[in-house]
Design a protein that fits this description.
It contains four helices and nine strands. The protein is of the alpha+beta class and about 190 residues long. A hairpin with a 5-residue loop joins strand 1 and strand 2. The longest helix is centred in the middle third of the chain and has 13 residues.
C-alpha cells in the first residue's frame, strides 16, 4: 500500500493520511512532484517525455512529464522528485539541480480500466537540465515504457493539436515556457 498525506487547499499536509487507491477513488487532495528534463541541442531546446506503461492506473500508453510521482506520507516535494528520477529513469540528481517553476492545483475525473478515477492533487513543477541518452537510461518498466526527446516548441504544438497520445496539460507547458523565458532561453 502507498500512503499519501492529505493536504488542505494550500497544499499543506493536514496530519491525515490516505491510501493512494482511496485518494483516487474519492478525490482526496494529495501532493505530486513533476520534473521536466531539458537539454540544448545546437540552437534547439528539447524536452524529454516518458511514455507511460500500458499497466498504469491512469493514462496508460500516453506521453507524459519526464518524471512524476506521488509524494509518500511524511516526505517533501524535492526528496520525492529526486527519488522518482532514480526509480523511473535511473537518473541521479542533486536537490540544487532542480529549478522550481511553479505549483499547479489539478482536478480531473475520468474512468480507467473500468474504474472511476478522481485526481485532486497539488503539484510542484521542476526543471532539470540533463543531456541523457535514452539508450543508457534504466527505465522502471512497470512505470515507463520508453522516453522521447522532442524540441520544446514541437512538443507544445503536438500537445495543443492532440498529435500524440498524451496526458500533458498545456497550462503546465506554459509554466515551463515562462521559466525558459526567465532564463533567457526562449
Amino acid at each position: 500500500m502507498e500512503w499519501l498525506d492529505v493536504v488542505n487547499s494550500d497544499g499543506m499536509p493536514t496530519g491525515e493520511v490516505v491510501e493512494r487507491d482511496t485518494a483516487h477513488a474519492k478525490g482526496v487532495p494529495h501532493r505530486t512532484s513533476h520534473v521536466w528534463i531539458f537539454r540544448r541541442r545546437a540552437e534547439t531546446i528539447e524536452v524529454m517525455l516518458q511514455k507511460r506503461s500500458a499497466n498504469k492506473d491512469s493514462y496508460p500508453g500516453c506521453y507524459d512529464i519526464s518524471s512524476a510521482g506521488h509524494i509518500p506520507a511524511g516526505v517533501d516535494f524535492i526528496p520525492s522528485a529526486l527519488r522518482e528520477l532514480r526509480e523511473e529513469l535511473g537518473i541521479t540528481a542533486a536537490a540544487e539541480e532542480l529549478i522550481y517553476c511553479g505549483r499547479r492545483f489539478i482536478h480531473f475525473e475520468a474512468v480507467f480500466h473500468g474504474r472511476d478515477f478522481i485526481d485532486n492533487q497539488v503539484s510542484n513543477i521542476y526543471m532539470l537540465w540533463r543531456d541523457a541518452d535514452p539508450d543508457t537510461l534504466r527505465l522502471q518498466i512497470e512505470e515507463v515504457e520508453s522516453v522521447l526527446w522532442l524540441p520544446f516548441e514541437a512538443c507544445c504544438e503536438m500537445v495543443r493539436n492532440h498529435q500524440i497520445p498524451n496526458c500533458i496539460i498545456p497550462e503546465e507547458l506554459g509554466i515551463l515556457r515562462r521559466a525558459l523565458q526567465n532564463q533567457g532561453l526562449l
